[in-house]
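Milestone 3.1: sequence recovery, worked example.
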């Protein structure tokens, strides 16, 4: 099974993004998830990721996006990844 946690961070200094970037890699490692960070810094509107709140966390299992979490809440995230 392929499990990926995709963290989409802001193109500006975002405290919540920084906290998630610090805390998520060890959580992913402990739970068997691949951690991917994507910075939403494209200047082209058409290339921007569909994000309206930072950070946005996408949970992808076997190449399918299972859930998208807006904002960072470690407790909610842990509850979510334990489902897979």
């Amino acid at each position: 099974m392929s499990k990926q946690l995709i963290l989409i961070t802001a193109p500006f200094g975002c405290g919540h993004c920084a906290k998630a970037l610090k805390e998520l890699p060890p959580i992913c490692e402990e739970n068997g998830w691949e951690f991917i960070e994507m910075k939403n810094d494209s200047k082209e509107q058409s290339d921007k990721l569909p994000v309206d709140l930072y950070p946005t966390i996408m949970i992808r299992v076997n190449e399918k996006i299972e859930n998208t979490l807006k904002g960072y809440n470690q407790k909610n995230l842990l509850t979510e990844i334990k489902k897979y």
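The mean pLDDT is 91. The two ends are 9 Å apart (CA to CA).
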